[in-house]
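step 4 of 6: structure.
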Amino acid sequence: MSLLLDVKDLVVRFYTQEGTVYAVNGVSFELEEGETLGIVGESGSGKSVSSLALMGLIPSPPGKVESGTVMFEGRDLLTLKPDQMRLIRGKEIAMIFQDPMTSLNPVLTIGTQITESLKLHEGMNTSQSRKRAADLLDMVGIPDAYRRLDDYPHQFSGGMRQRVMIAMGLSCNPKLLIADEPTTALDVTIQAQIIELVKQLKDEFNMAMIWITHDLGVVAGIADRIQVMYGGRIMESGSSHEVFGDSRHPYTEGLLGSLPRLDSSGEEKLTQIEGSPPDMRNEPVGCPFAPRCDVREELGLEKCWDERPPLETVPAASGDGAHVMSCWADIREGVA
Amino acid sequence: MSSQVMTAEKRKSLDENDVILEVTDLKKYFPISAGIVFQRQVGAVRAVDGISFHVVRGETLGLVGESGCGKSTTGRTILQLYRPTEGSVRFEGQELSTMAGNDLRQMRRRMQIIFQDPFASLNPRMTVGSIVSEPLQIHKIYSNKKERQQYVEQLMEKVGLNPYFINRYPHEFSGGQRQRIGIARALALEPSFIVADEPISALDVSIQAQVVNLMEELQDELNLTYLFIAHDLSMVRHICDRVAVMYLGKIVELGPVDEVYDNPQHPYTQALLSAVPVPDPQVEENRQRIIISGDLPSPANPPTGCNFNTRCPVRFDLCFEEPDPPLIEVRPQHYVSCHRVT
């Protein structure tokens, strides 16, 4: 496998009336061809903003990509001109969003919306693109696809709309699909349908995928690698088996402990992470998780407050991949 | 083995005969009207379509199902925030569905609700103090202003809010803190029964556990009874004693949580449980999912026969002919409504 995407030191800020929002504070990650990366984090952790940044979709102003590089097939996406970027967006990298209700245009038919990118990127004419669009709808499991091309988004249910979004995303055989909370607005049975569909299509199209979610359960089933974000930083990253089975960061550990599990009767009390997520308007110093971290408190670590822990390979990782974390302490050893 | 020991430890000492709430054949239809000048009813959304259950004092009954299945309507109809179309709701021995005016207002002191969205359910122009004390003013408890404020401060402390913030406005608080304000307001009148309508679904994962732990502590301390409405099935297993699964306005399965989760009998419950992701890659790799196709039918136009027959993987002739399979007790306390289960 070869490297498809290489993000280095991405910094994104928003300059708003209420002050500067430090949304993404130095995020680096890589993605191999055909790999699925799950980015997990709570609201405000910077997970969506970092993916919007690499698509060149940060509204500016108020947003600004301050620094960093996003290498995609040998080109730095952050330096491309808007019209060059337009040739990549939708064609090489496609994105599906959380809310299928608001991300489809309500006054255009589904057919118009799917064929738009086929005409633009693939140079198809109307009848070719309509045929291809019908095939795509059929592939994502929409019955009677050809006739439904002339329907409007409101004629579809939530799950069906998300299928339409997926069909649009896949229309030009992208190399990378970014899915930003694609199932959060859906019920669990529909979520299960969509996940199965995406898994199957991913293999068919052999594309890489970034799946952004706050639901640790969803990524456990779908991602090869997991990246846990908090306060605009990567806290821990590794193969999903390692991050879940051998989590090393106090935040990851806390997050897993605070989740009840369907498969255990869960009589024990949930371990809770005290406090609330950081206000991103404060300039980040030190570890963003420091105010809520029990490990810091237990070990009496002072440097967590003012020194940012580097993302380092986990000591004694059992090792089917690079397991890294950003913490001054090692919770397994209980030492700093 | 160890799980059995723990179950015995946690199991609250519930008196099965001390029924606090009895719902019988409850229906709530919302009319669909047509016509511009002369409005006439052309149909009805059968949001709740004949459900019966009871809640024992001190227990937590979970009400789960997908959006549109009628679980929130059930909660609100029980509290008479919607008046039922048919059926009876008996709360602490008194019939609520025929009650009105002052009598009903008095009953509302005993039953309260916590809403889903802590951003929409608090008046942005009121301070925390006035939000929490409003029920006290309405019911004219504490004529002395100072005493009232002291009581509000106590309540705030009880739900983990600093009483120092009594004069702040909702927008100054985070989502989790706002939900605590909502809980304090619900507790102000010392109710015995609380409907919690998706109290944690708008909160971040790390905050959900805080609110759930708080609700459990308060339950132990104040002997509260909860009707916990949720779509997060993992959380329901954690917090509830019994669970009722709803589909299209009807209860399809009802029983003790561990029994229903470990041994689901209704094909819908089976599919629902198998669709919930588990945060463990090893478990996920080996899981068999039952994927049910299609969407929820419209409650304005439910299918004839069993409600689930449009999506059911094990349907047969009878499911299309015979409506409303009865709730049959398959094991002690475990009820299922399915023609396959006899």
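step 5 of 6: annotate
 - Residues 102 and 153 of chain A are 10 Å apart (CA to CA).
 - Chain A has a mean pLDDT of 87.
step 6 of 6: archive
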